[in-house]
């Protein structure tokens, strides 16, 4: 009996200890679940807090952006005087349009965007010099041509600075790879070569020779030591009106000459206006130029977006001489203000402003009423109401400004050649 009682007691103790162990495990699991729930709730609170902070930051950024875009303006002949924000004070539009070009990939992208025709005419490879055929390399050697640094890069070509023994002077060598685009090679290039051989004017870049060795065409032309007009504007922020009158008068004289020989340029812009050692302008790049008889209309969609007349953007047949005048008006605006009149990143908005005949100026821009009036009359959205060459020459801003070429004298001072026609 005593033995049976002892065995029952041991079994009872085993059951109690097992129950206690099970109870302990149950409490541990419950505590773990509670802790997990607390951690999840804590994570949610943290996530909610960070999301709220992010939304607040976005909201603040949006409010700041709205504030930065608010401007006051008043109308003068349909011309707006705009108060610039802090960013515009520090960076004129010309510089601001190019502020992302530090990145090489962005630079290439912007270069494609600036030229309307890049989908049809891909830009040439900058390493073209390294792949010249033996025949072309031999031609360069015979003429004693030595290549130096790059001067510029166009849609179809690369321009190098060089020395020519035969001419005994520095030259610019425009190198075109005819394999890059058959459409340009067959249509535009022969026309360009024909025109540049015939055109003779003090303010048009002089071409000495055209060398053809398939697949390359090399155009040997004058080297201009002062770069292009856009580079000058960027160096000086803007060009004062007195100096601008000389440049613009020379540009109008070139356009007058081109019209007399029935040629339209169709790509007038600051980058295509070079400056010689005496600061005379030299028009270059006749890639889009063509013969155009009186009354004839052009249908080709070409040029640089920021300088395009509204009728070209709208794909209408256009008078090439009047569209060139529009481009000249943009050049004048950029020269004396140091910024672009229209933002070409959004073509739809740009066209809307053009058709509304709206031209904006920063309040701090010092510009004469006569200059504003001239720009306003040149940038008329209706081609038939746009100022012609004769109208520009009669304007108050250019009245009394004679056409002249600046020349270097013996004592290195710059003077004018008064023998040129007015």
Automatic annotation (TrEMBL):
Protein name: Protein kinase domain-containing protein
Species: Onchocerca volvulus
Location of region: Disordered: 1-89
Keyword Nucleotide-binding set for record: yes
UniProt xrefs under SUPFAM superfamilies: Protein kinase-like (PK-like)
Sequence intervals crossing the membrane: none
Gene3D superfamilies assigned: Transferase(Phosphotransferase) domain 1 (1.10.510.10)
Signal peptide: none
GO BP terms in the entry: intracellular signal transduction; microtubule cytoskeleton organization
Keyword terms, alphabetized: ATP-binding, Kinase, Nucleotide-binding, Serine/threonine-protein kinase, Transferase
InterPro entries xrefs: Kinase-like_dom_sf, Prot_kinase_dom, Protein_kinase_ATP_BS, Ser/Thr_kinase_AS
Family per similarity comment: Belongs to the protein kinase superfamily.
One Gene Ontology MF term: tau-protein kinase activity
GO CC term, one of those recorded: cytoplasm
């Amino acid at each position: 009996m005593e033995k049976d009682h002892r065995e029952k007691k041991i079994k009872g103790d085993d059951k109690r200890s097992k129950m206690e162990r099970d109870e302990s495990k149950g409490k541990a699991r419950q505590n773990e679940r509670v802790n997990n729930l607390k951690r999840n709730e804590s994570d949610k609170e943290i996530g909610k807090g960070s999301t709220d902070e992010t939304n607040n930051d976005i909201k603040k950024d949006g409010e700041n952006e709205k504030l930065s875009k608010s401007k006051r303006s008043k109308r003068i002949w349909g011309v707006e005087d705009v108060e610039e924000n802090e960013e515009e004070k520090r960076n004129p539009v010309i510089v601001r349009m190019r502020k992302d070009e530090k990145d090489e990939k962005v630079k290439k992208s912007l270069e494609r965007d600036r030229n309307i025709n890049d989908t049809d005419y891909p830009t040439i490879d900058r390493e073209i010099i390294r792949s010249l055929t033996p025949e072309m390399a031999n031609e360069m050697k015979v003429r004693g041509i030595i290549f130096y640094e790059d001067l510029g890069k166009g849609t179809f070509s690369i321009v190098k600075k060089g020395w020519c023994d035969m001419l005994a002077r520095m030259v610019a060598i425009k190198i075109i790879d005819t394999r890059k685009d058959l459409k340009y090679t067959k249509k535009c290039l022969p026309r360009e070569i024909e025109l540049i051989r015939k055109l003779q004017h003090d303010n048009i870049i002089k071409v000495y020779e055209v060398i053809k060795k398939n697949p390359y065409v090399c155009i040997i032309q004058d080297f201009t030591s002062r770069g292009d007009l856009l580079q000058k504007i960027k160096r000086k922020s803007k060009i004062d009106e007195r100096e601008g009158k000389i440049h613009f008068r020379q540009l109008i004289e070139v356009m007058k000459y081109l019209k007399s020989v029935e040629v339209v340029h169709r790509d007038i812009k600051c980058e295509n206006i070079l400056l010689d050692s005496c600061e005379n302008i030299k028009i270059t790049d006749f890639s889009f130029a063509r013969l155009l008889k009186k009354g004839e209309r052009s249908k080709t969609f070409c040029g640089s977006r920021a300088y395009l007349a509204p009728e070209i953007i709208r794909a209408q047949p256009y008078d090439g001489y009047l569209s060139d005048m529009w481009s000249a008006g943009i050049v004048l605006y950029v020269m004396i203000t140091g910024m672009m009149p229209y933002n070409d990143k959004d073509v739809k908005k740009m066209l809307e402003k053009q058709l509304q005949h709206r031209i904006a100026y920063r309040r701090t821009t010092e510009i004469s009423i006569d200059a504003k009036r001239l720009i306003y009359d040149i940038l008329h959205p209706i081609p038939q109401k746009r100022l012609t060459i004769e109208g520009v020459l009669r304007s108050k801003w250019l009245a009394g400004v004679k056409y002249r070429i600046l020349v270097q004298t013996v004592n290195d001072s710059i003077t004018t050649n008064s023998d040129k026609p007015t």
